Each structure stands twice: as C-alpha cells, then as structure tokens.
Amino acid sequence: xxxxxxxxxxxxxxxxxxxNRQQEMSRLEMAAERSEAVCILSIRRFGKTSLVNQILGxxxxxxxxTLSVDLAGCFCIDSLVREFEKGLYSLRGRxxxxxEDLKGVARLRPQLTLDPLSSQPSLGFDFSxxxxxxxxxxxxxxxxxAFPEKSGTxxxxxxxxxxxxxxxxxxxxxxxxxxxxxxxQERGGKFVPFLLGSERHLLQMMIYEESAAFFKGxxxxxxxxxxxxxxxxxxxxxxxxxxxxxxPKARITGIYRIFGGHPYAVNWFWSELWALExxxxxxxxxxTWVETAVGIILNQRDYYQALNSRLPIGARKVLLAIAAxxxxxxVFSRDFMVKACGMAQGSLQSALKILLEEDEIKKTxxxxxxxxxxxxxxxxxxxxxxxxxxxxxxxRISQA
Length: 400
Ligand SMILES: Nc1ncnc2c1ncn2[C@@H]1O[C@H](COP(=O)(O)OP(=O)(O)OP(=O)(O)O)[C@@H](O)[C@H]1O
Ligand SMILES: [Mg+2]
What we know:
Layout: H1 22-33, E1 38-41, H2 48-61, E2 65-70, H3 77-101, E3 111-114, E4 121-124, H4 133-145, H5 147-151, E5 157-162, H6 166-170, H7 175-185, E6 191-197, H8 200-207, E7 219-222, H9 228-243, H10 249-258, H11 263-280, H12 286-308, H13 313-325, H14 334-341, H15 345-357, E8 361-364, E9 367-370, H16 373-380, H17 386-399
Parallel strand pairs: 1-6, 1-7, 2-5, 5-6
Antiparallel strand pairs: 3-4, 8-9
Helix pairs in contact: 1-2, 3-4, 4-7, 9-10, 10-17, 11-12, 12-16, 12-17, 13-15
The structure holds adenosine-5'-triphosphate and magnesium ion.
C-alpha cells in the first residue's frame, strides 16, 4: 500500500511528491550559490515553505548546512533570541557530525573554549551572552552568519526565516529589521539568508519602500499559482504510479480551473480523491468528484467568512463588488462606486486602502482583482445552496 502522494495540512518535505516550481528552484539554488539574499512573498498556502524545503534538501545533498527558523510563534525579542539560540545549538550538533564525514578535517580551526559548567576545555564556537536582549539577538545572529567562516571548512550555510513579517509585528517601528540587515550585510560568500512571508503588505513595507531596511538588500521573489500543464502531468503521474489508475487530462484541467490553480485547494482535492480511489481501486464516478469539490468549497467558504469578518463593513462591501465585477478598472466610476458599492468617494477610498493593506485585492494592469483565487471562487458562489453548487462544479468538470 503506498502513501497518499498528495500532501495537505503541512508543508511538503524534501523527496515527497512536489509539483513543478523548477524555475523557482533553479533561481533559488543559483541565489544560494552566490550568497544572494532572497525574500519569497505570496499569499497564504501557495507553497512557500514547501518550495524552500525542496531547496534545503538539495543544498544538504551538496553538503550544505541549513537552518530554518519559523518566526510564526515569535511575539517578542526574547522569543526571537530563544529560537535563534536553539537553531545555533542544533547547527553546532549537526556540524560536529558533518565534520566527522568531511575530508580535510585538518583544515579545521575551531576555537578552544571553557565549558562554563564543568570548566573543562571543549571545542566549539565562541558564544557569550550579553545581558540586553537586542545585544543577545545581534550576538546570536552574528554567530549564525559567521558560522561557515568560523568552522574553518568549506561548509556553506543557508538560513531560512519563515514568516519573516513577524519581525515588523514585534517592532512596528521597523528597527529590528535594521539589525537583521546590518548583520546580514557582514556575511561572507558561504552564508545566504532566505526570508519567507505571507502578509505581503508588511513585507512590502520592509522591502520596497526606499526607507525600508531591506530596500535593495534582498531580491524579492513572488510565488504564483501552479502552472496548469505541470499540475496535469503531476496528478496523472502520481495516480498512475501509486494506483495504476489513469485520470483523464480534461478532468484534471476542469478541477484545476475550478480552484484557479490554488496549490493548496488543488492538492487537497486530489488527496481526497486519491484516498477514495485507493479504497475502491477504480476511477470514481463523476458524482464523487462533484461531492469532493463541493465539500472543499463549503469548508473554504466558512474559512474565508471567518477571516473576513474582521474587516469593516464598508471594506467587505467593496470586496464583494470587486468579486462580482473584476477586473475593476475604473473604481471611481458611477457604475462601480455608486451602483455596485453604493458609496461616496471617501468611504470607497478608505475601503480600498484597507483591502490592499490586507492583501485582499491587488491592482493589475486590467484593474483591481481579488488576490486569492480560492477566495475569488468562494465569493463567486457565496449565494449558492449545495445543489446549485454541485451543478456549478459538475458543469465545469464536464466542460473542460
Ligand atoms: N508545489 C506543490 N506541489 C503540490 N502541492 C503543493 C505545492 N505547493 C504547495 N502545495 C500544497 O499547498 C499546501 C500549503 O503549502 P505550504 O505550507 O508550503 O504553503 P505556505 O505558502 O508556506 O503557507 P503559509 O502561508 O500558510 O505558511 C501544501 O500542504 C500542499 O498541499
Ligand atoms: Mg509557510
């Protein structure tokens, strides 16, 4: 019995089935080789962490050391310090093991330090602890950044900071970012930082504004939906390989288009279908497909409803109006402002500002659109009952 190849509810690890992103992978690998800091931005659940897991796996195969620090649970400087300290300790452990496998151990020049508890000399890295938390943070970051140089070997290190926008939450004035920037600026050619984040307006403030700490200090890289062609071959291959079932291409395309290529929703659908087909050992009837897709849409309708309930009423109104009319080129036209939103210019302006800041909408060349394709879908079908929803899904699967 094989394991379900469509992984959901957690990031995909290295060597687990992962769809495409070849272009992004080569870009990131190249960036790592030349010590170029990159910031990967996307809306939630587009696969940032999964993508970086693939890169880290590849780098480790080449003998790199890697360290991932998730800042999702860090809400103060002290917790940042603790996360980085934990990371540094684990790095040291892994480096010790790696060192034994490395050739040319004679070239190592680790420092001789005294163990503060036992007063026994031990080989290790200098890691004193100044009292102030900012100093401690700077200290531990410097240790991590200098790790490859200090090891005296040819080892490279890739540091990933996931949910990096939390740094701005911890210090809304943005001073912490300058600390990260100044430490990263001192890096040698064997260290590279990758920053990941999902709240794009926060990250954009940290990167794109001329006064921002990371302005021109990192290369921004956006992640888009998965390409249709690659999803089709990924899904076909996985079903063939694990269940020996051939899924018609047109059906895969139909599902892809319903979910707008949203990586999480698409993978979720196939994960559910795979589990059903694994049990029955045959291609499930269309009704099962429809039921599965409807189940996901209903679930996500509740999810986005809960998420959007924190928006002011005016912003919610404009969101719905954009969903119904996108792309909206002329937002202040009579048709949109008065007829679709029923608002005065000032209220519309502040609603748009909130929606842009919350990453709910984005401005494209053709006009304003909903940022998240899955949210676009649930907004489009928000008034449908289950039966209408099933008809909507069935028509799209059969149409493709
Ligand atoms: N390349 C891919 N191939 C297959 N599935 C993918 C891919 N990328 C993402 N997914 C699906 O999307 C889900 C979310 O991925 P991941 O957690 O990496 O996204 P994220 O952008 O880091 O999310 P968050 O913003 O919540 O941190 C995965 O569990 C998987 O189901
Ligand atoms: Mg993530």
